[in-house]
Design a protein that fits this description.
Oligomer: single chain
Number of helices: 15
Strand order of the largest sheet: 1-2
Strand content: under 5%
Length: about 350
Amino acid sequence: MAPASAASSSRALNAILPLIASGQAYEAHQKARTFASRYSKSQQFDTAIDVLFQSAKELLKAGQQGSGTDLASFLLDVYENKGEQVNEESRGRITQLIALTGPSGAWRKTTVDKAIAWSKHGPCPAGDPDLHHYVGELFYKEGAFEAAEPHLLAAGKRDSARLLAQMFVEWAGPDHTAGAFAIRGTIPYLQNGNILAARTFITQFVSQITTARPSLVSAAQPTPLTLPRANGEPDEVVLTTDQTLNFAQLAVRTCQRAQGDKSKPMREAWVRLCGTYQSRGGVLAVREVRKALIELAELYFAIPQPRGQQANPLGDMLSAMFGGGPSAPAPARRILSPPPASASPGLD
């Protein structure tokens, strides 16, 4: 015998779905809301969820984006009221509805935004990584690169980082500056403390962009530079004619070897790296990028952010590292915990 919730859902859907099939979308939409409200108020959340999902799905298939999106929104409200956790089933309902909504108009954005907000109640404050990846990949496949970018960054998965690299290579084309796209991927991942995603991204991006543009590889150093790693495997950096692209590769490796305030050589290496490349101007000298690099100095190397608005970022970091600056109360600091003392500071 079917559970009571399934039986209730079937009775409601038997009254709703034929209306959609006969072109009475408005009536079907109103019935779905009425049934779902009744079930939700009586704490029959699973029944309400099934009614809303099945009704929204059929409405969207029938081209009724407004009504389908409204029921998808109601479904997410029931998720919230029930305290529904993010799992394959709950996420799968939403991704089906997002796919069926289609790219026209703002309907899909409404569902995406509300779904991400619901998923933030789980273990990931930025939203469910799998949901972000799904949305980012969907936008990428449609050529909506700007819409895809924040979702692939927020996802933080290795697959997301690879896809972001591929998308940025396509976006850059033959004419745009490769380095600008390189830091658009590496800096946000590093700011999130996601070394693995940052490394995956920059490795894939460099490989693909230099394949697409062989002239980017430095004629003075056509073979990759090999850096030591703790596991003995080679760690290669491709020297290019794009200084920002070189910086992005070295920044990821340096942050990967960070030991907080436990390793003075690594702290000094970060300050030198930033000072050397920022002194050459370009995108790395832009105010927003300088600010991001100062945040990374604190996050990975426990170098406090300067309290003033000085114009010299290298001087700022040097002063902060050696305890300079005024003694005003410092803001709350966000610092990654360094690896255990027994761990090797290699590039694994």
